[in-house]
Design a protein that fits this description.
Butyryl-CoA Dehydrogenase, subunit A, domain 2; alpha+beta; 16% strand; Butyryl-CoA Dehydrogenase, subunit A, domain 3; four-stranded antiparallel sheet; Butyryl-Coa Dehydrogenase, subunit A, domain 1; 12 helices; 376 residues
Amino acid sequence: MDFSLAEEQRLLQESLARFAQKEYTFEKRRAIQALAEGYSREAWSTLADMGVLGLPFPEHYGGFGGGPVETMIVMNAVGSALMVEPYVATVVLGGGLVARLGDEAQKQMLSAVTEGKLLLALAHDEPGSRWSLADVKTRAVRRGSRWRLEGRKAVVLHGAQADRLLVSARTAGEPGDEKGVSLFIVDKGAKGLSVRDYRTIDGLRAADVTLDGVELEAGALLGAEGTAYGALEWAMDQGAAALCAEAVGAMEALNAQTLDYVKQRQQFGQPIGRFQVNQHKAADMFIQTELSKSMAYLAAMRAGSKDAAERAHAVSAAKVHIGKSGRFVAETAIQLHGGMGMSDELAASHYAKRLVMIDFWLGDSEHHVDRFIAKG
């Protein structure tokens, strides 16, 4: 099987690498984290100018009609530079669902996303749901030609930064039922909508969302009523595959930094990289990263499959392996750095935090083991 990139994909990879090295240094990232918004509008605008924000969308909306492999290339760069911009929330999850379910009027939002003028976020998980897609307690009740939403959403990735939220709500059935789940587009300033913003341990932003009698027009319904579960499952697979690619980018960068450190750090009159036990640890980090890279390729190639079971098996298998390998690489890197590895001033600690948290975003390893088994 040929894993080499096409010419356009290679050029995209090189452009993103130059952007990360020159315009998104570790010092720049720390400054961006300190901003009230939690991301850089300048960096987001640059990504828009590079065409990155429109990669997966049809050309009709200013995109390039790319697929999961192009997303993988972008997320590798996101991981290598530890970018905190809302690419997964806006482009992969939010934009992906609009492109899949939206009518022509709703899909016009994709043009604004491509231009960097509109941020989206998926508000689906709820307190206590533990990544169960069908465990939706938020209710949407029809009142004439309008909808009224009541409920709570938890840990919405970049929820406070989004201009519009895609909110899942139950229009029929009970929590746990796959049928009866719908998606709604909710403007940030909607009456009855409250958003509590906070920084996560890995430097990103999340929010808890409360919907207290939010009134929506009929056109706010995204897709057919009560049939959103399949699209949500598809979107979560796209997001998980993207996170796998991000983890690989982070692992490769952390490996390189750790190797440089053990070559320079002196103990007992010689670099600590000369000690055999440390060489073995560094070799194990490299092996786990290479294995993870293969799994990320598999997830990217299968993420576009029309066979839902095939897609789920590949993505969950990759998420399990990369979740465990990412934690191993993070912990081993900290060990090799010693006490310095825990300091906020050193990039290694930030990579380690992100790798650990990637295991929890969109389902941890245990969840995806159960899902893999359930899919037969």
